[in-house]
């Protein structure tokens, strides 16, 4: 998140949270939690709407949380009818349709592509969501979709995939991550600093997450799962100019996790990396590579 690109409404919300954070930490934590469980509205461009028309749309029914069996509708998208199946995971506020160039390339190479709108995104159910729910939903989608050739995740979708493969009883031959955030706790810390929210709010926020999601925020961190991602081949692409998934942090992580292969580019930032030619070719090469 970058201060200079925040909309005025969000900057005003940040100013209010900052002012009330020290005298009212509990209320601030609740409002902050609600804000960061609410994805931004997304308006698809005509080119993406046209690409959606080429997909086969279906619906899966999953449960909302490990501790809540309330049904949740998940809308899936499918391209291609034969070949190895690849699952794509979009990021926070994103859409499967943002993988347009990659999907076209994969279908041309003989892959079947499946993706879905994350909870509270696109045509899927829910108004608010979080990483705990995304992991639970991904685990169920993997079980329902059967054997996968690979998972490709962008940003929050990459973090979701890595944590799910580390913490759940699921495995995939190939995991590919693009501009992937590494740590939910770091993200929250940076957001609190960005909004100038007093540090007294953070422990209250941790407690709130434990109460509502039955999880510890500190566990949502890939550094805790070095060498524990259940994938035979792991590949990561990132950009040195990305201000959301910072290259210096990823460089350090890769030093700790040498089994991960990587591609480091410069100049396309957080979102355009999804259509960078070298990244597209790198993905296709990993998909075609033997995992043994």
How would you characterize this protein structure?
With 292 residues, the chain is an alpha/beta fold. The protein folds into two domains: 1-36 and 185-219, no CATH class; 45-183 and 220-288, Rossmann fold. The protein is 40% helix and 20% strand. It has helices at residues 8-21, 25-36, 46-53, 100-108, 131-145, 156-167, 184-194, 201-213, 247-256, 277-288, and strands at residues 56-65, 68-79, 85-89, 112-116, 150-154, 172-178, 231-239, 261-265. An eight-stranded mixed beta sheet has the order 1-2-4-3-5-6-7-8, with helices on both faces. Strand 5 (150-154), helix 6 (156-167) and strand 6 (172-178) form a beta-alpha-beta unit. The longest helix has 15 residues, at 131-145. The protein is globular and about 60 Å long. The mean pLDDT is 94. InterPro entries: AB_hydrolase_1, AB_hydrolase_fold, AB_hydrolase_sf.
Task: Supply database-style keywords.
Alpha/beta hydrolase family protein; 292 residues; alpha/beta; Rossmann fold; 8-stranded mixed beta sheet; 20% strand; 2 domains; hydrolase; 10 helices
**CATH hierarchy class name of the largest domain:** Alpha Beta
H/E series: HHHEEEHEHEHEHHEHEH
Please mark out the parts with pLDDT under 50 across 5 or more consecutive residues, or reply none: none
What is the CATH T-level topology of the largest domain?
Rossmann fold
Give the strand tally: 8
- Determine the N-to-C terminus distance: 39 Å
As an assembly, this protein is single chain
Radius of gyration: 19 Å
Record the strand order, biggest sheet. 1-2-4-3-5-6-7-8
Biggest sheet statistics: 8 strands, mixed
Helical amount? 25-40%
**Helical/strand content category:** alpha/beta
Q: Supply the CATH superfamily name of the largest domain.
A: Alpha/Beta hydrolase fold, catalytic domain
How big a fraction of the residues is strand? 15-25%
Overall body shape: globular
CATH architecture of the largest domain: 3-Layer(aba) Sandwich
């Amino acid at each position: 998140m970058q201060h200079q690109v925040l909309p005025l409404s969000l900057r005003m919300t940040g100013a209010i949270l900052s002012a009330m954070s020290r005298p009212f930490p509990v209320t601030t934590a609740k409002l902050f939690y609600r804000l960061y469980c609410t994805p931004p509205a997304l308006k698809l461009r005509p080119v993406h709407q046209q690409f959606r028309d080429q997909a086969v749309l279906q619906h899966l029914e999953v449960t909302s949380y490990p501790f809540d069996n309330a049904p949740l509708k998940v809308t899936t998208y499918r391209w291609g009818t034969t070949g190895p199946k690849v699952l794509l995971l979009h990021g926070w506020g994103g859409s499967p349709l943002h993988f347009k160039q990659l999907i076209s390339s994969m279908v041309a190479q003989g892959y079947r592509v499946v993706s879905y709108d994350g909870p509270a995104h696109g045509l899927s159910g829910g108004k608010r969501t979080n990483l705990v729910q995304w992991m639970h939903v991904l685990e169920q989608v993997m079980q329902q979709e059967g054997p996968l050739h690979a998972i490709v995740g962008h940003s929050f979708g990459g973090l979701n995939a890595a944590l799910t493969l580390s913490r759940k009883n699921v495995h995939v031959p190939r995991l590919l991550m693009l501009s992937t955030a590494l740590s939910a706790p770091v993200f929250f810390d940076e957001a609190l600093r960005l909004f100038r929210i007093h540090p007294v709010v953070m422990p209250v926020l941790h407690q709130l997450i434990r109460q509502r999601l039955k999880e510890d925020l500190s566990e949502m961190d890939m550094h805790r799962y070095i060498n524990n991602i259940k994938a035979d081949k792991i590949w990561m692409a990132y950009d040195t100019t990305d201000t959301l998934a910072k290259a210096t942090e990823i460089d350090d992580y890769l030093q700790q996790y040498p089994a991960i292969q990587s591609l480091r580019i410069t100049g396309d930032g957080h979102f355009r990396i999804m259509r960078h030619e070298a990244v597209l070719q790198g993905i296709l090469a990993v998909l075609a590579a033997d995992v043994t």
